[in-house]
C-alpha cells in the first residue's frame, strides 16, 4: 500500500484563535504548515513551534494579506519551503464596526483587500501547484455576515458575500481537477485572550445560539480537518455553518 504523501497547508491569520487552532489541528494530522501573521511575529513563531511538536515542518510567513504583492510573496515562501501548498485556509479578516454613512473609501478598500481579495490572490498563487498534483483544498471563512448582514458592518457583509461567491466559483472550476473549495460560517467563537467575566461584543449573540454557549476555535478547526481530509473529497462548493444552531 502506498503511503499518504506529505502535504502542506498555508493558514493566514494563524497566530491566535481560529487560525492557530486550524494550524495545530492540521499539524496533528500530519500536514506541514506555513503560519502567516501580519504583525505579531512572536505569536506566529510560537504557533510554529507548537506545530513542530507534532513532528511536521513549520515555517513562519509574515506579511499583510491586504497587499497583492505580499500575498504573492507569502505563497512563494510556502511553496519554496514545501514544494507546493496543498491546502489553503483563508482565515485572516478585518471586522470593523462603523456606521455606513461614516465609512470612507479607505475603510471600504481595506476591508475588501483583506477579507476577500487576499483569498483571490492567494488562490491564484497556490492553485497551479494543486492542479499539477491533481489534489487540493481551499477553505474560506465567511461568517454570519455573509448570510444576513449586520448593521454597522456593511463592508464586512459585502466582502463575506463576495468570498462565498468566490468559493462557489472555484469549486465549480477546479472540482474536475481534484480541488475542492468550501466555506465555513462560524457563529460566536471564544477568543484565546478572553478574560473570565469580561463581556465582549460576541457575547451578545449567545442568546441566539440554541446550545447556549460560544463555540471554540478547536470546534471550527475540526470542520476544517474534515474538509481537507481525503474523506472530505465529495464536499465541494458548500458553506458549512458551525454556529450551535443559531438562526440565519
Describe the structure.
This protein has one domain (8-241): 3-Layer(aba) Sandwich (Rossmann fold). The longest helix has 29 residues, at 105-133. α1 (17-28) runs parallel beside α2, α3 packs parallel to α4 (105-133) and α4 packs parallel to α6. It is globular and about 45 Å long. The protein is of the alpha/beta class and 248 residues long. 42% of the residues lie in helices and 13% in strands. It has a seven-stranded parallel β-sheet with strand order 3-2-1-4-5-6-7, sandwiched between helices. It has helices at residues 17-28, 41-52, 68-82, 105-133, 145-148, 154-174, 217-228, and strands spanning 8-11, 32-35, 58-60, 87-90, 136-141, 179-186, 239-242.
Offer a few descriptive terms.
single chain; 248 residues; alpha/beta; Rossmann fold; seven-stranded parallel β-sheet; 7 strands; 42% helix; globular
Gap between N and C termini, in Å? 45 Å
Biggest β-sheet strands, sense, barrel: 7 strands, parallel
Q: What proportion of the residues form beta strands (DSSP E)?
A: 5-15%
Biggest sheet: strand arrangement:
3-2-1-4-5-6-7
- Tell me what the CATH architecture is: 3-Layer(aba) Sandwich
Distinct helical segment count: 7
Helix content: 40-55%
For this structure, what is the CATH homologous superfamily? NAD(P)-binding Rossmann-like Domain
> How do the SSEs run, as a string of H and E?
EHEHEHEHEHHEHE
Number of domains: 1
Return the structural class.
alpha/beta
